[in-house]
From TrEMBL:
<comment type="similarity">
    <text>Belongs to the diacylglycerol/lipid kinase family.</text>
</comment>
<keyword id="KW-0547">Nucleotide-binding</keyword>
<dbReference type="InterPro" id="IPR001206">
    <property type="entry name" value="Diacylglycerol_kinase_cat_dom"/>
</dbReference>
<feature type="domain" description="DAGKc">
    <location>
        <begin position="1"/>
        <end position="127"/>
    </location>
</feature>
<keyword id="KW-0418">Kinase</keyword>
<dbReference type="InterPro" id="IPR050187">
    <property type="entry name" value="Lipid_Phosphate_FormReg"/>
</dbReference>
<dbReference type="InterPro" id="IPR017438">
    <property type="entry name" value="ATP-NAD_kinase_N"/>
</dbReference>
<keyword id="KW-0444">Lipid biosynthesis</keyword>
<protein>
    <submittedName>
        <fullName>Transcription regulator</fullName>
    </submittedName>
</protein>
<dbReference type="Pfam" id="PF19279">
    <property type="entry name" value="YegS_C"/>
</dbReference>
<keyword id="KW-0594">Phospholipid biosynthesis</keyword>
<keyword id="KW-0808">Transferase</keyword>
<dbReference type="Pfam" id="PF00781">
    <property type="entry name" value="DAGK_cat"/>
</dbReference>
<dbReference type="InterPro" id="IPR005218">
    <property type="entry name" value="Diacylglycerol/lipid_kinase"/>
</dbReference>
<dbReference type="InterPro" id="IPR016064">
    <property type="entry name" value="NAD/diacylglycerol_kinase_sf"/>
</dbReference>
<keyword id="KW-0443">Lipid metabolism</keyword>
<keyword id="KW-1208">Phospholipid metabolism</keyword>
Length: 308
């Protein structure tokens, strides 16, 4: 099996490349490496391996966005397996799917490869957007996009305080965010929610750097989970966010959750969207958009002793 490391030098605000140089020296088996140079490059790399029909383990050395691109490029292949080494800022991918801890862990996998089929979420709105972990509309999307664009993130990461930038933007966005109306069509029923802060479609439990937004989500059950936070005061929302890391937010009456193979979502005005924390434009006003499990799945490392 060919081993290919796909390294995003921009991950972790530029620290990933330095970390890779150290990691590379510990590898005792043959491998290839490719360093990405532009947004979408990891997707193109994985797609090339898919089209060549080579048997390979593609290991993303980066963050959640890097892994999303690799998986989108590899999806549908019977010959490609995707693994990861967490080198980004949020690293929610590793929390759900596992991540290699060192080169020796990869060698253990090579002795007994146990891939596992996984779901891939998607929605189409002008173009197809695929997501591995989650796609959100509203408050969480505005925060994620603002954090990714913020020069403060880079400065705090350099001090080892990168997670504080998320707290800063939660508070900043909390003060100025304009709530919206959301219509949800699910299993033939149409429900409208007023005063909505966010709606997040999940394929796994985590988002936002360790927040357990959707505790019941499983990555391979053919289902997605929708979480809607609505009709809640700004002060209470701050309290709710404080409980998301443990998953206790689901006890609040203002948090609605449901599970299905497909959701149709519509907002009465354009609202920020994200896929796995990256900008996905704005939701179209009054248009129902389908969020579903993709017809093409992908293979990940089976969660066993060689990852954590």
């Amino acid at each position: 099996m060919k081993i290919v490391f796909i390294i995003n030098p921009a991950a972790g605000n530029g620290r990933a490349l330095k970390r890779w140089r150290r990691f590379e020296k510990t590898i005792q088996f043959p491998f290839e490496q490719v360093v990405t140079t532009y947004s979408g490059h990891a997707l193109a790399i994985a797609a090339n391996y898919r089209e060549s029909k080579q048997v390979a383990l593609l290991i993303g050395f980066g963050g959640d966005g890097t892994l999303r691109e690799i998986i989108a490029g590899a999806a549908g292949s019977e010959k490609l397996i995707v693994g990861s080494i967490a080198a980004g800022s949020g690293n929610d991918f590793g929390r759900a799917y596992g991540t290699f801890t060192d080169a020796q862990a990869i060698e253990q996998f090579l002795h007994k490869p146990l891939p596992k089929r996984q779901d891939l979420g998607e929605f189409t709105n002008g173009k197809a957007f695929q997501f591995v972990s989650s796609s959100g509309i509203g408050f969480d999307a505005e925060i994620s996009i603002s954090v990714n664009r913020s020069p403060l993130k880079k400065k705090l990461n350099q001090l080892g305080l990168g997670k504080l930038v998320y707290v800063v933007y939660v508070i900043r966005t909390l003060l100025k965010f304009e709530k919206f109306t959301l219509s949800v069509k699910c299993d033939g029923n149409l429900v409208t929610y007023k005063d909505v802060w966010l709606a997040t479609v999940n394929n796994q439990p985590y988002f936002g750097g360790g927040m357990k937004i959707s505790p019941s989500s499983k990555t391979d059950d053919g289902l997605l989970e929708l979480t809607v936070v609505h009709k809640i005061s700004r002060l209470k929302l701050l309290l709710v966010f404080g409980t998301v890391f443990s998953g206790a937010h689901t006890r609040f009456k203002e948090v609605t959750q449901m599970s299905s193979t497909e959701f149709w979502l519509s907002t009465e005005k354009p609202v920020c969207r994200h896929v796995d924390g990256d900008d996905a434009g704005m939701s179209p006003a009054n248009d129902l958009v389908s969020y579903t499990v993709s017809q093409t799945d992908w293979q990940s490392i089976k969660l066993t002793d060689y990852i954590s």
